């Protein structure tokens, strides 16, 4: 966008002209667009897209500097907000009292996994003995049910209330901001009318759950009670809306990437019967390492920090003075598969617990990640890996699944953020195993 003043980085890095990001200009493949800029300009360059200036960094020192940025100087939270608000109504962000990052304490994980088991029970009822299902639709519905059981209150994971919330959250999907960034201009032009109607629907259903909580239906809904208690000092109307919007933001932030990662994990295990046999024989450590490896390869994340105050940023070949208003960014899919030999292949043995077993082939261990590094590691990592392991083991242990297509779906080309969403349906046939492990 010519004529728009942008922050001046000193000294001036190479500028990738003619390159844009997909929420501002039409691109065929968002990751390939940045890869071309990197091939032309090296590991450090700027991209001017819309009104924004991005400083991309891919060098070992630059990536280490990126992860070391203090939140108060270069904010992940602000960068995430600026991305998600392209899709979500502003009111969902206002005055939140319980944030997603507050709900993944050690004790909470056991609660979520108990709700996962209940959600899997319901999933088995819905699947029946045999049939065909689209794998990502299956995992998305499972994710909805588990999450809503965990934090949306009584009646939210069953029956009419559940179906209403599924429809609302499928509309109110913040991940569209980075999965379908090319659609955000139309969302803005509509005034987010569909998203606001969906948020109103969430408020009605969660409000009914709040009535049941206030009537004494607390057992199994302690987390929802915690969210509600934060609003007990407000009048009823303000309280109902506040609780519902807290629940909405928690659910949007917590579930969609997990559901997609679980879908890819199922496909990866189905493609490797030898690994699947070991997982079904009880090798939980292997199952968790497989989930990590799937997540690494499925990453399409742009990792971004909004610069709040001037910062000196070292990329190894230069130290840049970066002013407020700039976004410093790196792109996980361009690092996770190229930073060392063999990284393009799926191999759970490259992990030891949650760390790479061998980093000798990497210029920096921080060049490869599934959940981030340092203080900005995803707080839901322990829960996500436990949930993926438990769900994959249960589903693949109870059912024989077989993809109905000979080709694996690729990611949505325009996507630039989060875990990859499949660009095409992936139906799988299934039948219940006669002898369950």
TrEMBL record:
**InterPro entries per the record?**
CYP450_sterol_14alpha_dmase, Cyt_P450, Cyt_P450_sf
User: Can you name one GO molecular function term for this protein?
Assistant: monooxygenase activity
Q: Which UniProt keywords apply?
A: Heme, Iron, Metal-binding
The family database entries (Pfam families) matched by this protein are listed as: p450
Recorded family membership:
Belongs to the cytochrome P450 family.
The record's PANTHER family line, in alphabetical order, gives: 24-HYDROXYCHOLESTEROL 7-ALPHA-HYDROXYLASE (PTHR24304:SF2), CYTOCHROME P450 FAMILY 7 (PTHR24304)
State what protein this is by name: Unannotated protein
Q: Which organism is it from?
A: freshwater metagenome
Taxonomic lineage from the root: unclassified sequences, metagenomes, ecological metagenomes
């Amino acid at each position: 966008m010519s004529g728009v003043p942008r922050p001046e980085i000193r000294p001036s890095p190479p500028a990738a002209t003619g390159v844009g990001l997909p929420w501002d200009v039409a691109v065929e493949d968002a990751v390939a667009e940045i890869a071309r800029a990197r091939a032309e300009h090296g590991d450090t360059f700027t991209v001017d897209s819309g009104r924004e200036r991005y400083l991309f960094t891919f060098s070992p020192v630059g990536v280490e500097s990126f992860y070391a940025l203090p939140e108060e100087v270069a904010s992940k939270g602000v960068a995430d907000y600026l991305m998600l608000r392209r899709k979500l109504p502003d009111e969902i962000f206002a005055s939140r009292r319980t944030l997603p990052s507050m709900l993944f304490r050690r004790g909470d994980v056991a609660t979520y996994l108990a709700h996962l088991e209940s959600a899997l029970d319901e999933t088995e009822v819905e699947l029946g003995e045999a049939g065909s299902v689209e794998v990502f639709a299956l995992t998305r519905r499972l994710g909805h049910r588990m999450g809503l059981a965990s934090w949306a209150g009584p009646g939210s994971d069953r029956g009419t209330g559940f179906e209403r919330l599924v429809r609302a959250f499928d509309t109110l999907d913040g991940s569209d901001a980075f999965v379908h960034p090319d659609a955000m201009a139309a969302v803005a032009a509509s005034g987010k009318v569909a998203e606001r109607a969906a948020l109103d629907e969430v408020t009605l259903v969660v409000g009914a759950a709040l009535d049941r909580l206030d009537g004494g239906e607390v057992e199994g809904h302690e987390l929802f009670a915690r969210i509600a208690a934060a609003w007990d000092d407000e009048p009823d109307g303000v309280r109902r809306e506040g609780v519902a919007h807290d629940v909405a933001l928690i659910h949007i932030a917590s579930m969609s990437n997990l559901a997609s990662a679980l879908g890819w994990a199922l496909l990866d295990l189905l493609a490797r019967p030898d690994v699947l046999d070991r997982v079904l024989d009880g090798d939980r450590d292997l199952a968790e390492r497989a989930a990590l490896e799937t997540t690494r390869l499925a990453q399409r994340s742009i990792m971004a920090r909004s610069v709040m105050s001037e910062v000196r940023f070292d990329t190894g070949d230069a130290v840049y003075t970066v002013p407020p208003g700039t976004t410093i960014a790196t792109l996980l899919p361009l690092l996770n598969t190229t930073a060392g030999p063999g990284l393009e292949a799926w191999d759970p043995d490259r992990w030891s617990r949650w760390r790479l077993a061998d980093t000798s082939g990497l210029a920096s261990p921080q060049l490869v990640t599934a959940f981030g590094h340092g203080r900005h590691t995803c707080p839901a990592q322990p829960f996500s890996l436990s949930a993926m392991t438990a769900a994959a083991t249960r589903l693949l242990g109870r059912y024989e699944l077989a993809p109905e297509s000979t080709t694996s779906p690729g990611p949505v080309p325009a996507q630039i953020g989060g875990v990859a969403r499949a660009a095409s349906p992936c139906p799988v046939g299934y039948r219940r195993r006669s002898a369950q492990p």
